[in-house]
Structure formats: C-alpha cells, structure tokens
Amino acid sequence: MQGYMNKVLFVNLTTRQTSLYNWTEEDQKKYLGGKIMAAKILTDLLTPDVEPLSEENILVVSTGPFTNTGAPASSRFNVSSLSPLTGLLASSNCGGNFGIMLKKAGYDALIITGKSEDKIILEITENDILFHSADDLWGHTVDTIQAALPKRHGKLVIGPAGENLVKFAGLFSQERTAGRGGLGAVLGYKNLKAITAFGEKKTPINPKTKEYYKRWIQTLREHPLTGEQLPKFGTAGLLSIMQYRKILATKNFSENTYDDFEKVSGETLRENHLVKNRGCVTCPIQCGRQVKYKGELKKGPELETLGLFGPNLMNNDLEKIIEWNIELDHYGMDSISTAGVLAFAMELNEKGILKTDLEFSKTDNISEYIRKIAYREGIGNDMAEGVRYMSEKYGGHEFAIHSKGMELSAYEPRNAVGQGLGYAVSNRGGCHLNAGYIVLFEGLSMQMNPRSLKNKAELTIFSQDLMEVTSASGICLFTLQSMLPGFILEKSNHSITKMVNKLLTSNVAAGSVSILNGLKENQLRIHIPNIPHTKALKLLTGHEMNLGKYRLIGERGYNLERLFNIKRGLKIEHDQLPKRLTHEDQEAFVPLDKLKEKYYKKRGWDSDGIPTLKTLRKLGLE
Amino acid sequence: MINVKFFGNYSIIAGTNQLSIAAKTIKNLCYLIELETGIETKRLKNSMMFLNGKPVLKNKKLKAGDEVAFFSPASGG
After folding, report:
1. C-beta of residue A64 within 8 angstroms of C-beta of residue A35
2. What secondary structure, in 3-state letters, does A170-224 show?
3. Torsion angle of the four alpha carbons A226, A465, A76, A486, in this order, in degrees rounded to the nearest 10
4. How many Å is the maximal CA-CA distance in chain A?
5. Crossing angle of helices A547-567/A34-45, nearest 10°?
6. What pLDDT, in 10s, does the model give residues A202-248?
7. What phi, psi does B58 have (nearest 5°)?
8. Those residues with Cβ within 8 angstroms of residue A444's Cβ, 6 or more apart along the chain or in another chain
9. What is the pLDDT at residue B7?
C-alpha cells in the first residue's frame, strides 16, 4: 500500500538470524502502524508469562504511514515492548530521525527478540543487516555513542542507564527520547547498545498528497497553539497556566501551586535562556528549545522536566533544571520518572521513613543522585526500580505518585478530575498523553468545569482513541491541537466560548460524544477541516479513510492494548491513583470510583474492566 | 494600583511580564493596557484572565493591590 515500505524486519539477537515478518495490506488497514501495529505484533508473539527483562521479550520499533512522506511533524516513530517498569505493555513515541531512516532503509517496522551474547550494535541498510561489536562503546553516554556512530545514519541508542537496567531508562534518537516505560532497559538486557538505519529509498505516495500537506502546514502555522505558543515557548509555556489553574504538581503532589513558579516558567526560560528553537525533522512547529549551557548550545527542558524538577522538588533554580536535563539525556533516563522517584524519596526522608540527604528545596545533591540512579549505586539501586518498588519496600503507598507503576506527569489532577481518570485507566500507566489529556479542556486551553464529572469519561475515551490513532499514523500528537478552533482559544471570554465551555459539561455534550464513541466503522464517513489527518491518509494511501474509520482504529488500538494487559494480569484495582489524590477528606479530590464505573460502561467494558464480546466484535478483535 | 501580569504571547507583545496601572474595572484596565502596550482592548477582554488567582469571566470592579493576569492560548503535552 502507498505510504508504506511494505516490509517488516524480524531480528533474533540470540541466533543473529533475520527474516521478513508477515504484515499484510489488511493488517495495514486494520492497525495502521506505530503503537497499534506494535500492540498487534506483541499480542501475536508474546505469551503472558514472558518477563520484561528476558530473552523472550520483544521490542517493536514501528513507523506510521505518514513517516517519511513529507507530512507535517511526521518523523515520529514508536517503540513498544513489555515494560520493566509496569510489567505491562509500554509504548513510547519519539521524534528523532530514526523512523525516517528505517523507512529509507526499506522497512516499516523492526521486531527484535532474543539476547545477544556479546555487546552489539545492529546496522540496518537497504542491502544488509549487520551486527557489530559494541565492546568499545559500552558505557558510553547517549551523546558520545551517537557521535561515534556513522553521521548519516538514523540512530536509536541507550545510555548507561539502559545498560544498567534502570527501570525508566529511555531510547534516544538525536535529541529526542522514547522516554517512558523503561524500554531502554529492554535493549540493555539484550546487550544491544544501538540500532542504526540508513537508506535512500522513497516511500511511495500519491502526488496529490503533497499539495494537501502544504495546506495542512499552513493551517498549523496559522493556529494560535501550533503557530504561535508552541514555537515561541515550547511545552514549557504551560507551566504558568498550570499554576493559575491549581494543577501544577508541587512537593510530590501534596500541593498544586508554587510561589516561585515564575522563576522556572516557560516565559523565564525564553527570556533568560532560549537561543533558538529546534524541533524534530519535518516539523513546522519546532517546539524544542535550544539553550546556552557552559558556552555550548544544548537542549532545553520541556514542561514535564521543568514542572517535576522545579515545583515538585520545591526547586526554583532554572539553571539547575537545565543542567539536570542535560545529565538525564547523557545517562539516558526518563525525566518524569526520575523526578518522581526523587520527590518520593524526599518525602520518605521528610517523614523519617527512609533517611537520606534528599530534601525538598535542596539542590546541591540532585546531580549526584541522578548519577547514582543511572549506575545503581547505593540507594540509587532501589530508586532505579521506580516509585512503586520503593513504596513496596519502604512504605508511603498513599503518597507514592504512580499509576500501574509509572510515575505521573506534572499535571496534578485534583482540579482536573478527567485527567485523573485518564491517568488511572491509561494502558501505559501514569502518562498524561495516554490518559487522553483532557486537562486541555479542563483548564489549559478551555475552561470546562474541572471538577464536574459530566462528560469526563466520554471525552477521555474520545480523546484517547483519537490520540491513539494519530500516534499510529506516524505524526506528532501536537497536530491534533488544530482540532480546537483558534477563535475559541483566542477569545476565551467571548460569549460563544463561554457557552461552549458550559456545554462541555452538559448532558447534551456527554450524549453526543458518547454517540461518536459508539459509532461503527461504516458510520461518520466524513472529513472535517480541523482534523486534516483523515483526508491526508486517504490521499496518501489511496484507500478509504474517514473520521469514523480513523476514530475506530484508535478505539481498536486502545482495546487491543487493554486486552494485552488483561492477559498479563491487569485488574480494575490496577486502574488506580494514590490515595493522596483520591481521598475525600480534602477540598478537591478525584472521585475515581464513580468516574471509572462510567468509563468502563462507556467503553463497552464490563464491571471488571474487560471489553465485552459485543465491543470486541465491533472492533474486529473477537 | 493594579498589578498586571502578562503570560505567554502577551509577555512578548507587551515587552514585559508586569505592569502597574491604576484602573477601576477590568474593562477600564484593558483600555489602559492598550494605551500602554498596544494590545487591543477587545483582545484583552476576551482573553483567559485571572483576578487574584481566580478566573474572571466578566467585567469586575478592581481595588488597589489587585492582581490581574492575562494569558494567551497555551497547550503542549
């Protein structure tokens, strides 16, 4: 099919045998690519008893049909595997150039299993699959290993944290990270230090698509979020509004505002440190930050790093955050989980449960602890296992800020209860994006009542499914932000916007979203200008695509991942948040049980959170 | 005096994060900000704004020492 290279590479590291994996046109239509394709492959190949850090575990690197076709923000690729952090399916999305190069080498996806006896590097080119010794490169940091590999190749590498099996080690391509779920440790266990890909193949596309892409890029450039706020402030621009909405995780989520927030805000980052923007290849948004650090241009921190290494550690020193961000990238660790485990250890110390020299507001030893975690030294060895493990070993369950073992992102959900629901039911665990990110409606961009329960389950489902399929298409989720009309965003206090905000928590809206979520594949055969993805896919592949079909593929993906997790032993009690966020004896809390009940019902799942046969039939997953 | 704060794109257009302006109402404040910074009154009035940390959805009276914060649209992930 157009948009695809129509080849999937299977590599067994134990035997060093390679082959082509059977992935048909029907599979392409049904699962699209990226994380949904990966979920299907992992469902088919993994038995439920496989351990994340084992020879049998499989890691899938998959692109989408948009990747390497010139679509806006389409360098995205996905990495999925059994997560060492959660024990469940983890998918992590990355924006470096590896996905593009994998397609240029002739492959839509790469499936890796087995375990190499020696430390190796895997090289994929148009004509060869080669295994090189990594003996001399083992121990290298992410920046030095990338510099040591061929310049023109796309690279996907791990740092020392991945080698040392840190449960939240990431994979890195250029300056971007597949950070969540500890998938870097999966590569580390398999003794695979890096994968490189190179080729000059073109992805076949319908020529008409390019004209459509041009208009799409223009739309993104004219939109207030993708054309103005994100290029000017990056994701860091959210920190201030989070403060005013009282959703800024502070002091290990015990508070939601931070007096010194302006010292670590996106505005301050821009004013005092920003040198230029630098985003992913093919992206017209360019949300990445380049800052000057010790005379060199370096990647600046994103919102999550600012929030979780700033207010959540009670730290107001932005330069320190820039420094730690660089260190995390060198060692190859997820900043969200690292900050989460640091904040948890600080509170354990404050409460006298586990004595360390980690204290809120104390910054002079953070670099040392980041290193200790990456190399598993001393208490760093426990911290490298994540917050859930730490709470099981030392206590503090009620303030162990994770869901399904994954540390939460920087949005404190007591004043954004839909986001709280999303964190709890997310297939990945405590991830803001897989949660559905309806905090966007609950205060960041819109002013939907953040504590109302109405339409939260419905909107979460709609958003999760739409993000699922968009991720699978190989394009950045930020392209979905043009879904919100610029008029509504810029005129927050206009009577029409106020009416929309009010309407969002009405029975009418909940009913309408619910109807949308329940539609079958052949319904809603339309395209809408605010979601150009569907028409672009239709032009690109030459096959039918419309809004209904697109949404349904997302729903299929979300359910497929859920089924995978259920086979791994997931129960409704794992769809959980720490008591700190849900207990009712406080001004604001996430009424999780009520929200979950509604969510399961609206998802077409039974009261045990298992998709019903009717739902599976609708999705072709029975 | 009213302590005015600008966030997001407003901080760039205004060329500052903060202003002190004497004003009696939100509406009056927006007009005075336009004179000072060039940001249109209509645009400011329709913005996401907060009075002393609480969302403001309509014109309100102001008193000395109040803080009014203006936000341009923001998102991320």
Report:
1. no
2. CEEECCEEECCCCHHHHHHHCCEEEEEEECCCCCCCCCHHHHHHHHHHHHHHHCH
3. -10
4. 66
5. 40
6. 999 998 999 999 999 999 999 999 999 999 999 999 999 999 999 99
7. -150, 175
8. A238, A241, A242, A245, B74, B75, B76
9. 97
Nearest CB neighbour to A237, from listed B17, B53, B76: B76
Tell me how far apart the alpha carbons of residues A430 and A432 are, in angstroms, rounded to a whole number. Answer: 7
CA atoms in the 13 A half-sphere facing the CB of A266? 33
The pLDDT tens digits for A344-367 are 999 999 999 999 999 999 999 999
Q: In this structure, what token pair is assigned to residue A272?
A: 């005092």
Task: Mutation target for A interface from B11, B39, B57, B75: give the one with most A CBs within 10 A.
Answer: B75
Token pair 């979950």: residue:
A596
* Residues of A in Cβ contact (< 8 Å) with B76: 230, 234-238, 287, 302-303, 444, 478
Confidence at A521, pLDDT banded by 50, 70, 90 = confident
Closest-CA residue in chain A for B72?
Answer: A490
Angle (deg, nearest 10), helices A547-567 and A507-518: 80
B77 pLDDT more than 80: no
The ipTM (two decimal places) reads 0.98
Q: Does B65 touch chain A (CB under 8 A)?
A: no
Listed in sequence order, the residues at least 6 apart from A555 whose beta carbon sits closer than 8 Å to its beta carbon are A461, A465, A468, A517, A619
pLDDT of A37: 98
A528 forms beta bridges with: A531
- Contacts with B, A 226-255, CB within 8 Å: 228-230, 232-238, 240-241, 244
pLDDT the model gives residue A283: 95
Going from the C-alpha of A8 to that of each of A23, A129, A148, the distances in angstroms are 7, 13, 27
Q: How confident is the model at residue A376 (pLDDT cuts 50, 70, 90)?
A: very high
Q: How far is CA A190 from the centre of its chain?
A: 23
Nearest-CA neighbor of A591 among A424, A431, A365? A424
Q: Token digits for A283?
A: 């992206």
Please enumerate in sequence order all residues whose Cβ is within 8 A of that of A503, keeping only pairs 6 or more positions apart, or say none. Answer: A509
Q: State the pLDDT confidence band at B57, using cuts at 50, 70 and 90.
A: confident
In the three-class reduction of DSSP (H, G, I as helix; E, B as strand; rest coil), residue A59 is classed as strand
